[in-house]
Design a protein that fits this description.
Blueprint lengths: L1 E6 L2 E10 L3 H8 L5 H4 L3 E6 L8 E6 L5 E9 L3 E8 L2 E11 L5 E10 L7 H32 L1
Antiparallel strand pairs: 1-2, 2-8, 3-4, 4-5, 5-6, 6-7, 7-8
Length: 155
C-alpha cells in the first residue's frame, strides 16, 4: 500500500507490506545499524556508537551525499523505531514499524516525513524516489533474512 499527502510543507511517503519473515528476524536487522547498508542500497555506511534506544545518536552517509548525524527519537522494542536525520532535502523523520502476523510473519511499515519549505516544490521527485527506495530496501531486507534463516537451518 502506498500513501502520500502534503500537509504544512511536509511530505509523507509510506509503504506497507506483509512478509513471511518472523518478526524477531526482521527486528534484529532493523536495530543493527552497521548492517543497514546491506539491505538499503542508498546507504554507504551507518554507525551507532551506543546501544539503540531513545536519544541514541549515530552517523549515516547516503551515496552521493555528505555524512550526517541521526538521532533515535522513539524506540519501542520489537515494535517501532523513529529517527530524525538531515538531508539534501531538509530534515526528515523515518518511521519503521513491525507488527506480528498470525502465521509467524510480520507487517512492515515504513513512513518518511520531510519537513522543509522546498519539499512541496520537489514533491513529485521526492515521493517517487522515496517509494522506490522503500520498496527495494524492504525486498533486500527480506532476502537478507531468508538467506540467514537458510544458513541457520543447515547448521
Amino acid at each position: 500500500m502506498y500513501t502520500n499527502c502534503f500537509e504544512k510543507k511536509m511530505i509523507i511517503a509510506e509503504y506497507t507490506t506483509n512478509t513471511n519473515i518472523p518478526l524477531d528476524e526482521l527486528w534484529s536487522k532493523l536495530v543493527n545499524v552497521s548492517l543497514w547498508q546491506t539491505w538499503d542500497e542508498t546507504i554507504e555506511f551507518s554507525e551507532l556508537d551506543e546501544p539503540m534506544g531513545e536519544e541514541s545518536i549515530g552517523l549515516i552517509k547516503h551515496k552521493d551525499f555528505e555524512a550526517t548525524a541521526f538521532m533515535i527519537l522513539k524506540y519501542e522494542y520489537m515494535k517501532k523505531i523513529v529517527e530524525v536525520r538531515k538531508s539534501y532535502f531538509g530534515k526528515f523523520k523515518l518511521h519503521r514499524e513491525i507488527k506480528r502476523l498470525g502465521a509467524g510473519g510480520a507487517e512492515f511499515i515504513q513512513k518518511i516525513e520531510i519537513l522543509n519549505q522546498t519539499a512541496v516544490v520537489f514533491s513529485p521527485f521526492i515521493v517517487n524516489s522515496l517509494k522506490e527506495s522503500m520498496v527495494k530496501s524492504i525486498e533486500n531486507l527480506e532476502q537478507l533474512c531468508l538467506k540467514e534463516m537458510m544458513c541457520y537451518e543447515r547448521a
